[in-house]
Amino acid sequence: MSIKLIAGNWKMNTSLEEANQLIDEIIKNLEDGDLSAEKKVAIIPPFPFIDLVLNKIKTIPNFYVGAQDCSPFDNGAYTGDVSAKMLKSLGVEYCIIGHSERRLHHQETNLTLSEKVEQALNNDIRPIFCCGENLEIREANQHIEFILKQLYDGLFFLPKEKIVKTIIAYEPIWAIGTGKTATSQQAQEMHAAIRNEISKNYGAEIGTYFTILYGGSCNAKNAAELFACPDVDGGLIGGASLNAADFLKIIKSLPKK
Ligand code: PGA
Description:
TIM Barrel, eight-stranded parallel barrel, 12 helices, globular
């Protein structure tokens, strides 16, 4: 059985004070059984607030902090970049790589993404590798082929011992921040295709244990239905992770499969 994960991607939101309040509110309302070794939660705040959130959650088992990106470079003269090594030194566990917003606004290529994946893994950080098609591709019924190509280009070059440390987030671009979520059938179809391809490349055991998240307008109302799909192992939550009550409801929607 795969490990379940709910990851809250705060994107470029919150001030220092808001970040403080939001994490305090989440922690205050967590209940026994919300987190376990099979059901983990990660907060993925903007870089400046990573240390703040980490210090608050570090004594809570199965609660982690992630970063929204990392540099494809090791260290040196790369103004503005944040290295995976720096993130690891803080205590970061996960790093989003290849989010569609970065592919779009920062022209990230598959080559850059594969370098970032390597940087994260070399520093013992687990990449949350994002893939997702736009509406045009979905309407042309080429979505599965498109997603698998993104995975072959950005991830499937990894050997077995590294692929097992990664997580995939399927985030259809037409569903991100639009309020228009994928139906559970659409999510399940894609997640099953992804799992099948992992099994084909790395063996059935790795396929079965692999964590595949859904992202794109997942909220307190639709989370339970999405998470009930056999191949959906949790969510990468954007907008709804900025509201503590909604985020907690989403955490509680994860069934103990
Ligand atoms: P959303 O974002 O939940 O606001 O649609 C998800 C994401 O982009 O990670």
